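G., before I forget:
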Amino acid sequence: MMKAQKVSIRNVKWDRPARKAIITIGNKELLNLSFGPSVSTEGEMEVYKNLVGTETLDHVHVVVTKLFSVNKTIKPLIEKASNAAIDSDNYTMKNTYLTNFLESVTIIIDPATDSLEYEAHTKELSTSEDVPFELRKIAKKILKIKPLKFKKKKEERKKYRLKKKETYEGYWRALLAEPNKRKLQKLISDTLDAESKSNADVGLPPVPVIDSLEKLEWTKEINRIALAYWPKNGPQDNCATYLIIAPEVLSDEFLVDQIIEYIGSVDSKFIVFKFKNLELDTRGKVDEKEFFKKLLNAIVQIKHEKKDERVFVLLEAGLQFYAAAAGGFDIVSTSISGHDGDWIFRPSERTDTINGWFDMEKLFFRNDRFIRKKLENGGFRHKDCPACKGITDYASAKRDWHDKKRIHYVVCVNQLLTRLYGYIDQQKIELAKSDLARSEVSNLKHILPLLDHI
Amino acid sequence: MRQKNILSREEINAMRPIDRERYVQDIILDVFEQSKPWTIREIVLKTGLARPTVTKHLHRLVDTQQIVSETKKFGSFSVTNYKKTGIIENRKELQQKFSGTWNYTFFTIDTEEDHSICIQQKEKDELGAEKVKGAIVVNFDDFELFIKELHTYAAKVIQK
């Protein structure tokens, strides 16, 4: 059964496209603007938990995880929090640290149905017991189509892609074609139940990846049924409208207009977007940037029209997180390492190197060469960063680099959002545009709405 | 708001029984957002649900004090109207942890005729979702007497 919670937005202050406020979901509070690092392993969850428990990170009180990863991320914590107790005759001490953590951090669990189409995590989707049986079944079916080795590369790949598309689309089409939608309803309620079992504070329905008008219509239908399923023993505010969007949609103005029309008409307070492999910073994406800006403009307008009663979330924001937060999204999320591309990770060919250090001024990830140079010239002078504090030379940087770069990234994003918060407070959000202009992703300055004249 | 999301009859029938119960109750409760008396027939027309379904849920809602029923007699005929319990004020969710999955909510109900205190008994399921399982309404004027009786009774029973 899903947990219906009241969502309220108070202490609102606007500066053109950006809004600062306090969002309450049930008993949990978070700042608008917030960053939700997405964690997928036990180690990443541990890094996040220790960081939020010891550092003052006001803008990072949201954590995102995928449904197929909850057995490694959230569930062990829930289990520990409820089991770890010291009992004596009349005294029971629960694990208050973990209980407090679970009661204060907003948890978003992504059903990650996009992993049916994007292959990096299809296997995990097909094997996780937390994923509804129907989804696991179709994931297994999709995995079976792929040959172990493509002998005639081009031809076979094309054939495979077509067959996969056919299976994937056929699955959703069959679910939606049933007159009583029994199977679809079961899938929706099972998914929402599975999220609730892992303490999710916002309900995300299982939706297909939108790359055509037909799939947008499917998404609308699924979101409608999910909202009907949400219990009304309180306000049904925390059932989100969820849209997973393929990157090519951003070059189709008609589809973007349809999406804008849809998000303007929905009743749910949470509207969650996930753009797959969003890379607006690369050259040549003129239309994509323009239409993304159009979407941001619409978001700002909807928030005003609905009297601030809407919260917009962007999952897998990638390098766009800063521009998205300055341009209208209230909660932004990237993976805790900062890399969101949905492809199988290949470590650097150069062995014995360390990469992926986030440069807060350039809003970009630095490589080994830069890190070495930086350490030769006095090291990382990053104030209040527990990861950078302990780095004195290259050898010390290499120790636990995997954790250090994650801690550093989360601290950086928190500081960037604190900076944005300050800009809104002083009515100087145009400074966010200057930050972008000075960065490696300066292209993104063009997507900020309502700041054209600056 | 909820009326927009009403599912079709086929879709409702395809729901799991537990979800269907909750959904139908929510839909009926939504009708009472308009504070006027409703007859069963009107609710059936408004929601498109079957009469026996509506009747069953109305009885349950009356039992849990979420709505009240009033029967007016016209000679040998009688008409039963259902309406919202009254203006609910001073709602207080008790923060104390009671044993098991029970919790209690206190609130006052103000209607034109009287003012009462209502105590709803709620049950939390394994996922924390609450459901009203029962309720009691005591008039303001009778409350002191009620507490005295409860106190005396409890003292006797607990001593034993």
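The two ends of chain A are 49 Å apart (CA to CA). Chain A touches chain B at residues 1-4, 179-182, 185-186, 189, 193, 196-197, 224-225, 227-229, 231-234, 236, 267 (CB under 8 Å).

More on Monday.
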